[in-house]
Design the sequence.
């Protein structure tokens, strides 16, 4: 049997159970979000040695040294004994102030924050509504241009976080934020052709990455494919068209399954990509959006010649609440 | 010098892995074995396969090979498909004929374990 020592208490762990699940099962009010190793809201500290390396994926070298780990990803070896404690979560977070929150279409809101954090456009942060509700969002802004942090929030009817954020946050409010995290960002070289593809708010990180690349003087062609199920769910389409007009190396296609408009064409994003770029050899690829989209696109891009090492993907995972 | 060193060691595996994995994914005889949802972990396993086939350092025993493939009920046809894709990959990379033969010999040496015979 594996025994977990938590803040001075002993807990008998079930086989295959994560530290987070064991704590929740024993009614400890610990914070968590995605339960998939992405948002880092379940960060805890443990004694060195007992923490499996997979529970520290995505953490900084300093955090690993301190024994920090993601409790949702931590399944200790059978018959071991593990000592863990909560950390002062505040130490991992910073405060941000709401500049404004405005709808971009019927579902997606643009939240702009003032905060000190340095980041690469395309990375993501975790926002905290309170001590237990946290959600991750990708960064759409380029600090040097926008002078703020911009996130795109899809308002979900049942969204514990998003409905609150979209309906109740107002300019001047403060909220806590953790990060930045993730490896989906532009790092050159300026001569490598780029493909960026995202559905829905998968556009947010791509909007940051593409403008970052242009700002850094990217010279090779950049192809941005974005879209949604319905034409009216596409957003920033006019802005993207304008960006492409100003930058001849940028090619933008906004594609809806159903409907079209001045900037949106009707079609299938997978097929349109195949027809436009049949050969992706030598391309750097960024894919963002729902898990199913990212998986399908990743395979398609790989088979079209992109190297696995050149495909950066950021799948948005549903945050599960038990 | 081992065949692994002769063809360039880990760099050779890196050069071959994308080509080989792409071939396997579009080969109807065997693609279903490799079409798992997590491409990154499958990609890593292709590297393990190639390192071993190239006679490189690996920690697998015949017993491990048996255990890793047992549940797949593999046949000669599956084995041949993997071998053909391996050879085609090496040819595409202009690996000399004798080296290719040595690499195929390594693969054949674990055939019974892989096919659980
Ligand atoms: C030619 C001789 C072969 C060698 C040397 C070999 C070697 C390996 C190695 C080293 C692994 C990784 C094991 C692990 O670490 O989990 C592996 C996994 C695998 N092999 Fe082979 N293999 C051979 C033939 C085949 C054949 C003929 C097939 C099917 C057509 C096959 C299908 C697989 C699959 C699907 C996995 C991944 C299993 C998983 O996802 O856990 N292999 N093989
Ligand atoms: S990383 Fe553990 S809950 Fe999100």
Sequence:
């Amino acid at each position: 049997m594996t025994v977990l020592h938590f803040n001075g208490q002993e807990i008998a762990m079930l086989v295959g159970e994560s530290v987070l699940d064991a704590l929740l099962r024993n009614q400890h009010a610990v914070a968590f979000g995605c339960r998939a190793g992405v948002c880092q809201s379940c960060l805890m500290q443990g004694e060195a040695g007992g923490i499996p390396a997979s529970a520290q994926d995505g953490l900084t070298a300093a955090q690993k040294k301190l024994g920090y780990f993601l409790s949702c990803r931590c399944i200790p070896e059978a018959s071991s004994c593990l000592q863990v404690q909560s950390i002062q979560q505040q130490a991992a977070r910073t405060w941000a102030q709401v500049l404004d929150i405005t709808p971009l279409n019927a579902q997606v809101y643009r939240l702009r924050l003032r905060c000190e954090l340095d980041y690469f456009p395309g990375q993501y942060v975790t926002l905290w509504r309170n001590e237990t509700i946290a959600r991750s969002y990708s960064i759409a802004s380029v600090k040097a241009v926008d002078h703020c942090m911009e996130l795109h929030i899809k308002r979900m009817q049942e969204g514990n976080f998003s409905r609150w954020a979209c309906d109740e946050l107002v300019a001047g409010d403060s909220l806590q934020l953790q990060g930045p995290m993730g490896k989906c960002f532009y790092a050159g070289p300026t001569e490598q052709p780029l493909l960026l593809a995202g559905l829905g708010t998968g556009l947010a990180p791509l909007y940051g990455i593409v403008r970052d690349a242009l700002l850094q003087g990217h010279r090779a062609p950049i192809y941005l494919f974005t879209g949604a199920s319905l034409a009216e769910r596409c957003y920033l389409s006019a802005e993207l068209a304008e960006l492409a007009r100003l930058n001849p190396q940028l090619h933008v296609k906004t594609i809806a399954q159903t409907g079209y408009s001045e900037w949106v064409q009707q079609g299938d994003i997978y097929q349109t990509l195949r027809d436009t770029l049949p050969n992706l050899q030598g391309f750097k690829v960024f894919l963002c959006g729902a898990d199913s989209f990212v998986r399908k696109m990743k395979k398609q891009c790989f088979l079209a010649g992109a190297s696995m090492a050149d495909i950066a993907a950021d799948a948005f995972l549903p945050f599960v609440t038990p | 010098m081992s065949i692994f060193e002769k063809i360039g060691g880990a760099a050779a595996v890196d050069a071959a892995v994308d080509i080989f994995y792409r071939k396997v994914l579009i080969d109807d005889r065997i693609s279903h074995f490799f079409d798992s949802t997590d491409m990154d972990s499958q990609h890593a396993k292709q590297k393990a396969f190639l390192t071993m086939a190239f006679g490189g350092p690996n920690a697998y025993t015949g017993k491990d090979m048996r255990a890793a493939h047992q549940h797949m009920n593999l046949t000669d046809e599956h084995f041949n498909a993997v071998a053909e894709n391996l050879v085609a990959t090496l040819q595409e990379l202009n690996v000399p004929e004798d080296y290719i033969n040595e690499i195929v010999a390594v693969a054949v040496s674990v055939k019974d374990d892989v096919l659980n015979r």
In short: The domain at 3-114 of chain B is CATH 1.10.490.10 (Globin-like). Chain B touches chain A through ten residues (CB under 8 Å). The helical segments of chain B are 3-6, 10-25, 31-34, 39-53, 62-69, 76-92, 97-109, 111-114.
